[in-house]
UniProtKB/TrEMBL annotation:
Single GO MF descriptor: butanol dehydrogenase (NAD+) activity
Family: Belongs to the iron-containing alcohol dehydrogenase family.
Pfam family, one: ADH_Fe_C
Xref: InterPro entries: ADH_Fe/GldA, ADH_Fe_C, BDH-like
Protein name: Iron-containing alcohol dehydrogenase
SUPFAM superfamilies, per the entry: Dehydroquinate synthase-like
Organism whose genome encodes this protein: Aeromonas simiae
Cofactor(s) listed in the protein's UniProt record: Fe cation
GO CC annotation, single: cytosol
């Protein structure tokens, strides 16, 4: 196990009816901005619960933050924050709204010309407005991590800073009953891939991290399909919401090697062709594992034995069987795994590789040996 530092300062309020807790979590005198997306919170009663909790306060609202939150839209929120001297942000939605609010929190006090520099030039975040959130879609872990992913044209970039860590996160599984099946599947696949990107590298005798990761994967495998077949089952929704949060709150990745190449490649497919975030991951991951099957063989075999309960067999065969189980699980969650399922053909391979080169993402993987030529092979295998 490698050395590590770990703290997760986000206060979690988990369970039915917990939206009411924001009344006590928000500072009494705060000038608040509520940020949300395209309106699902008005249809499922979340907006009404938030309004009730905010009764008697000074607050403004900003809506219309779409999937893969867009820089130009977010800059309108930045203007509103500056004009109205907002000093606390409340994000209510999925990963896109939360990430968008994180960008607004850092961009509003930004002193330079254009806050896009925080992403494009990796200018360090010097400070940000405090942010709290109400999560409506279990998937990204954004509710208790310091990362945000923002899109601008063909660029989909991430930035991170301790200043972006939400102060609190309300996780009420009942608000996820209204999710369409597509977003349930997306959420499970995204969380599953987050765990694998912190697990499927090479062994460093980190038994605690491995067992935590395997436990979370099993919880997703048990509960994911049930959320599709029994959409009103509260314990199923609760287990998914907590598993997705723990999948990317910093815990399971401490002290172990990580490989975020599936996300790096997937972001280009989203930026260029509009695939949902999880769809892009479901296309890339199985082929990427086949490309790296030798380097990742020990962990692939461990995953196959411990999680998929596969019988002992020759390592290469066990690795391939493990990858086939992952692929089948994504399909079971309704997320297709081939480029052609999304109407994409060979031309996309060159475009993705040239985007990766443009953004300097040319040494991916836990060994830094996944260059654009190998990425082209990965995508060709995903046809
Ligand atoms: O816009 P609204 O009306 O809210 O509808 C949303 C949106 O259309 C809808 N939705 C959310 N909660 C709902 C609901 N519909 C009905 N009932 C509910 N309870 O779902 C749609 C998708 O929402 P979105 O927020 O885009 O999905 P997700 O949570 O999957 O977030 C994806 C974004 O997060 C980024 C992705 O790249 C992508 O931009 N990620 C952020 C990460 C992070 N901050 O750590 C890590 C991830 O790997 C990921 O990259
Ligand atoms: Zn993700």
């Amino acid at each position: 196990m490698h050395n590590f530092h770990y703290a997760n300062p986000t206060q979690i309020c988990f369970g039915r009816g917990e939206i009411a807790a924001i009344r006590t979590l928000l500072p009494a005198k705060a000038r608040l901005l509520l940020l949300y997306g395209g309106g699902s919170i008005k249809r499922n009663g979340v907006y009404a619960q938030v309004c009730e909790a905010l009764a008697g306060r000074d607050w403004f609202e900003f809506s219309g933050i779409g999937a893969n939150p867009d820089y130009d839209t977010l800059m309108q929120a930045v203007e509103l924050v500056r004009r109205e001297r907002i000093d606390f942000l409340l994000a209510v939605g999925g990963g896109s709204v939360l990430d968008g609010a994180k960008f607004v929190s850092a961009a509003a006090p930004f002193q330079g010309d254009d806050p896009w520099a925080l992403l494009a030039d990796k200018v360090p975040v010097e400070g940000a407005l405090p942010l709290g959130c109400v999560l409506t879609l279990p998937a990204t872990g954004s509710e208790s991590n310091p990362v945000a992913v923002i899109s601008r044209g063909a660029a989909k970039l991430s930035f991170r800073s301790p200043h972006l860590q939400p102060r609190f996160a309300v996780l009420d599984p009942a608000v996820t009953f209204s999710l369409p099946a597509r977003q349930v599947g997306n959420g499970v696949v995204d969380a599953f891939v987050h765990i694998l990107e912190q697990y499927l590298t090479y062994p460093v005798q980190a038994d605690v991290q491995d067992r935590l990761a395997e436990g979370l994967l099993l919880a997703l495998i048990d509960n994911g399909p049930r959320a599709l077949s029994e959409p009103d089952n509260y314990p199923v929704r609760a287990n998914l919401m907590w598993a997705a949060s723990l999948a990317l709150n910093g815990l399971i990745g401490r002290g172990v090697p990580q490989d975020w190449s599936t996300h790096a490649i997937g972001h280009q497919l989203t930026a260029l062709y509009g695939l949902d975030h999880a769809q892009s991951l479901a296309v890339v991951l199985p082929s990427l594992l086949r490309e790296q099957a030798t380097a990742k063989q020990e962990k692939l075999c461990q995953l196959g034995r411990r999680v998929w309960q596969l019988p002992q067999q020759e390592s290469a065969a066990l690795s391939e069987a493990c990858i086939q189980h992952i692929e089948a699980f994504f399909q079971q969650m309704g997320v297709a795994t081939c480029l052609s399922d999304y109407g994409l053909h060979d031309a996309c391979i060159t475009a993705v590789c040239s985007n990766l080169r443009h953004f300097g993402l040319t040494m991916l993987g836990e060994h830094g040996d996944l260059d654009p030529d190998r990425v082209a092979r990965v995508l060709a295998r995903a046809r």
